[in-house]
Amino acid sequence: MRKLVVVFVLREAIYSFAALVAMAVLVGLLAAETLVKVLGPATSPLTGKVIVIDPGHGGIDPGAHDGQGIKEKDIVLAIASELRVLLGRAKAIPIQTRLGDWDLSDIYPDERTRHRQDLMARVHIAHRSQADAFVSIHVNKSSSTSASGPVTFYNPNQPESKRLAAALQRRLRELQPETAGWIMPGDFYILRESKVPTAIVEVGFISNPEEKKLLLTGEYRQKLAQAIFEGLCDFFKGSPLPPSPGRASPHQVPMKSWVNIFP
């Protein structure tokens, strides 16, 4: 009788263990399916790519502003955070240079001014992380209220940066086909110092009343993040350089006084 009880107990334990294993496998499969849905397909061109997202300005440097409390640093932080989520879902490795309202000057104190320290820290992050791409997001400002549309800058001495800028701008132009500018060479600190493919994206003009309204809506910011995301996908798929250098029309030439972009 004792032997039968032991056998019965052992058998029940084995069944219970098997049930636990089966449940664990089922949970694992469900979790894997959920992860695939959340992270995106394994064939994503962004899988494993290290992408540095840089919301420009921050801290005591507001960037462009409208004089009524609307600041560039807040707009670009929101867009960068949306982009970070999209990249994570696509199995990229997004690195956002700032997650709040602060600058990065303390990270790289070797430069002679706080603005240069802040900028070099952002470049330093891209280099130390061995980034595959570096995208710095900004908002533009002009003395003309009619200036509008996205513009993207690149280092003319770096073909891959130009290709990145072109890929991003193609997608941004889809949001504003009639007003968006094109890619432009820029002699800016970040572009000069960065050794990885880098683009500065001006997503729109805060000085344009209609565009400012768009930039203040979560829906449009999400569309901008999606456009930049798709441009990055195109870049890593091998999108070509534009057939000829793009030029912005005269009223679209950026006129913002960038205290932390210009030398």
Quick tags:
263 residues, alpha/beta, Aminopeptidase, 2 domains, six-stranded mixed beta sheet, 7 helices, 6 strands, 46% helix, globular, disordered N terminus, disordered C terminus
Outline of the structure:
By secondary structure, this protein is of the alpha/beta class. 46% of the residues lie in helices and 13% in strands.
Helix content: 40-55%
Range of strand content? 5-15%
Task: Please state the second-level CATH architecture of the largest domain.
Answer: 3-Layer(aba) Sandwich
Task: Name the helix and strand elements from N-terminus to C-terminus, one letter apiece.
Answer: HEHEHEEHEHEHH
> What is the overall pLDDT average?
82
Number of domains: 2
The main β sheet shows up as: 6 strands, mixed
Fold and architecture overview:
The protein has helices at 2-39, 72-89, 114-128, 159-175, 189-193, 209-215, 218-237; strands at 50-55, 93-96, 133-140, 151-154, 183-185, 198-205. The protein folds into 2 domains: 1-39; 44-252, Aminopeptidase, CATH 3.40.630.40. Helix 4 links the parallel strand 4 (151-154) and strand 5 (183-185). 45% of the residues are buried. The chain has 263 residues and is an alpha/beta fold. Helix 2 (72-89) packs across helix 7 (218-237).
Secondary structure layout:
Layout: H1 2-39, E1 50-55, H2 72-89, E2 93-96, H3 114-128, E3 133-140, E4 151-154, H4 159-175, E5 183-185, H5 189-193, E6 198-205, H6 209-215, H7 218-237
Parallel strand pairs: 1-2, 1-3, 3-6, 4-5
Antiparallel strand pairs: 4-6
